[in-house]
Amino acid sequence: MDLYDLLEPIEMLFQWSFGLLEMLGNSFNWIIIVVMSILGVIWIKKMGDYNREAKEKGTLK
């Protein structure tokens, strides 16, 4: 058994996964942009909640 036999399944996995990305085309980029935007809004809201809580408790410096 040589190195190629060990790495061939990984190669096939990468070829299959990138084939899926090619089928999705540019829509995959839009999905990532939307998901990251939603997560960014949630993160900013959480930061505001933490700052408000810290201000109420007097722990905000």
Brief summary of the model shown:
This protein is mainly α and 61 residues long. Helix content is 87%, strand content 0%. The chain starts with a helix and ends with a helix.
Write the layout of secondary structure elements.
Layout: H1 3-24, H2 27-57
Question: Can you characterise this structure?
Answer:
By secondary structure, this protein is mainly α. It has a domain at 25-61. It contains two helices and no strands. The protein is elongated, with a radius of gyration of 22 Å. The termini are far apart. 0% of the residues are buried.
> Could you tell me the number of beta strands?
0
State the oligomer.
single chain
* Secondary-structure-derived class: mainly alpha
C-alpha geometry: elongated
Extract low-pLDDT stretches. none
Mean pLDDT: 92
Distance between the termini: 62 Å
Descriptive labels:
single chain; 2 helices; mainly alpha; 61 residues
